[in-house]
Specification:
single chain; about 160 residues; alpha+beta; Nucleoside Triphosphate Pyrophosphohydrolase; 9-stranded mixed β-sheet; 3 helices; 9 strands; about 20% helix; about 35% strand
């Protein structure tokens, strides 16, 4: 059984719950990992059709399990979803969402082959930020609200790349 630590709106730990059973008003932690190759393209995975939001493209990530740090969760998810083992994670930002506390990391692609896990992902591919913007506009990827800030963080401005 997967357990998640839960937090109040100030970020203070208030207990543990079973996966998906976060009490009303509480938050759980989520880690995102944006892997970028030497050409500035982002490695995304396509969610298994059996999952919530199945078929949508997304960055690597998932819920932080009880006893795990956001960094450990990002590394675990990279291995589970795409068979990736980044060497170094760079913290981009942390923010409070409606139901979660999100920690966002960036990493350089190590050149490992993409290895899909059937119950997690059905595809993995690299996309430019222009392609990512277009996919977001068409509703083909999981929604996120920080893409321009991420591009500025990684490339120095929102149009470089």
């Amino acid at each position: 059984m997967e357990l998640w630590t839960v937090y109040d709106r100030s970020g203070a730990e208030i207990g543990v719950c079973e996966k998906g059973r976060v009490p009303d008003g509480a938050l759980h932690r989520v880690a995102h990992l944006w892997t970028v190759d030497e050409r500035g393209r982002f490695l995304l995975s396509r969610r298994a059709l059996s999952k919530h939001h199945g078929g949508l493209w997304e960055t690597t990530g998932g819920s932080v399990q009880a006893g795990e740090t956001p960094k450990e969760a990002a590394l675990r998810e990279a291995a589970e979803e795409l068979g990736q083992h980044p060497k170094e994670l760079r913290l981009f930002r942390e923010f409070f969402g409606e139901r979660e506390i999100v920690t966002v990391f960036c990493a350089r692609y190590t050149g490992e082959p993409i290895m899909l896990k059937a119950d997690e992902t059905i595809d993995g591919a690299f996309f430019t930020k222009e392609e990512l913007r277009a996919m977001h506009a068409r509703g083909e990827c999981m929604p996120f609200t920080y893409e321009e800030e991420l591009f500025a963080f990684l490339f120095g401005d929102s149009t470089a790349g």
